[in-house]
Amino acid sequence: MACDFAIARFRFLRRLLLVHGHWCYDRLALTFLYFLYKNTNNVFVLLFFQIYDGWSASFTTDPTYTILYPIIFSSLQPIVIGVVDQDRSAAELLQDPSLYSPGRKGEKYTYSLFAINVIDGIWQAAVVYFVAHLTFVDYECGLWTLGFYISTGMMLANAAHLTLEVRCWTVPIVVIFIFFILLHFAYFILYGIAVQPGKSLLRCSPSTRRCRASYPHILGWLYDAPVDVPLDAMMTADFWLAMVITTVIAVLPRFAAKCLWNTLFTEETAKKLK
Predict the structure, then answer these.
(1) pTM of this prediction?
(2) Angle between helices 143-165 and 76-84 (to 10 degrees)
């Protein structure tokens, strides 16, 4: 990591190592583990759907949203937190050099933490899919309706998971969380309006018709678009109850583990064990 820093005086080395070195390692470990969890979660949601879809490789979530989700809807939040989050203040790190030890020993990015985040991603994927699946177990629902439940549940579970990882809450972090939650719903509402019959350029343009005739397996979804599906879902109590249940159950194991760890293994206890 030495190539990432430049110092004008040797006396700055202490702050470079104890403060910026600690923050750099801690933020990188947090960001990598979160992206590992998020990608695992995203993949396994699709896998669980395939079990009930005859392994057809079809999407239940909107294809456009599926492409944009890891790029736009869920990438900026962990990046911002990875830049500004602090587990300790600079004064604390300078006052107690022993706090640099976890970074020097590589204790925040280990095989066990890698495995825990993969397992947590699979668990949350199961919760996201099966809560949506069981919501409609007694009656029929459209593919796009199920997909909207799954997409929203996954987004809320990922956001709730990330809130548990933030150690230093600031106004920009709160704003960015609220912004992307609102952006999620705004996207689906505007997309549902854009594909209304007779109004959508995607559905009516001659070029799209020619492409669909040549590649029906690729562009067929444009003619089976989720018209008013998000609005219809959001007008029901079942949707909001399912989202609450999904979010709570998905992050409950991590929340309980963090509470237990922070209760039993305080700093004083950890130092005594050492």
Answers:
(1) 0.81
(2) 0
